[in-house]
What does this fold into?
Amino acid sequence: MKCKRCRRADAAVELPSHHAAFCSDCFFVFFRRQVTEGIRKLRLLAPADRVLVCVSGGKDSLVLWDVLIDAGYETEGLYIDLGIEGYSARSKEKVLAYAASRGKTPIVVELAKEGVPIPEAARCARMQECSVCGTVKRYFFNRVAAEGKFTVVATGHNLDDETARLLGNLLHWQRDHLARQHPLLPGADGGLVRKVKPLWRVSEVETAAYGFLKGIDYVTEECPMSEDATSLVYKEALSRIEDRMPGTRIVFYQGFLDPSNPLRKRPETATPEDAPGADVVHGTEVAAGEGEGTARTCVECGTATFTETCSFCRLKERVRKARSLRAATVSR
Amino acid sequence: MAHPMEKTRSIKETTINTMERTRISVFLLGENDLGYLTPRPGETQLFRGDTMYNERMITVRLSQKKKELELPGPRRVMDLLAEAGVRPTTVIVTQGRKLLTKDHRVEDGATIDVISVVSGG
It folds into this structure.
């Protein structure tokens, strides 16, 4: 199979959803265009932005960082060490190696030092690991961005992630979540930083192919905590549809983002679910607060929240109580 | 219809039939004749623990499943994936530093890696 763009080299990547196949050089051009077009169309980033790229060591986040650096954006990486035995050490190694190859040093937050390593925090708080992880990550994304004077936080969510979440929200008629789902979550006064998902137009196969061809060494193993994530069920369903009808996923998502779609209204300001205090259950955002409210600061840590105490501080308190209870039981 | 995964077994699992197959191959070929063979009726692959194993087969490494298969070639990537029970849209397939398209013909003796692209959570 020959490249559909240069018509000379053998194709390395076949993309049925675009009726195309590309050699590696032409695929780089295609991929970067897809990302920059996604940024331009929804005005996700401005040239003057200071971008905090959240990197996990997986393909999507490292590819996102790579593309943004190549596009000339001012970026820094943020890696959150989740405290998951083995997995966290391996993913951190990949992040540090990639950052070094681009002359960067990522900001590292270690949850064990912060008192909330994910496995223990989930056990103590009797919550699902993905839910705890979402709460903690959002808190640190926002806190690090605000402290470091970043104007925007970028995450590596891709088309597959976004359509899986859309399908989940539709199947459960989560109208509030549908109204807010968008690659751009606006910031708000009080320290809520804007969040963007510049990879919303590219699929997982495309990011994996880009990462491989660019020689980005990413962690290929899955987070051991996400094995039973419901988002995987939605992803598989959509993937089977895509097998039979290539291009369905992008049509599904672009149709949803159409401003005339009555299911969603584009938020002009942040809502409680955008705050670090919102909970996430397997990719579906769930409000932590009691509905809409006004932004204020957490009485414990001073971060932006819509409730008196942010959900991160509430989580920390639950973990602290569980630890003291356990210590008391052991000493008896 | 049998699930495609039922056909694919790990090397470890299949060595249990080694003794039985050794007897068959010695009877058919003589002890030193280990030339190219097509799989037995009803089977489409051979295994390293098998005396009928052909050194020049295709090695398919499924790292996420911690599994390695030996399949007879030459065959297209999409056929190898079907044999391994993997849907082509959920993986990328590589050979060394080369990315393979699904219609790429893999020759005997080659080693390919099947890398899942699906991330969860």
Q: What stands out?
A: The helical segments of chain B are 11-14, 18-29, 77-84. The interface with chain A takes residues 63-64, 87-90, 92, 94, 97-103, 115-121 of chain B (CB under 8 Å). Chain B has three helices and seven strands. The CA atoms of residues 44 and 71 of chain B lie 8 Å apart.
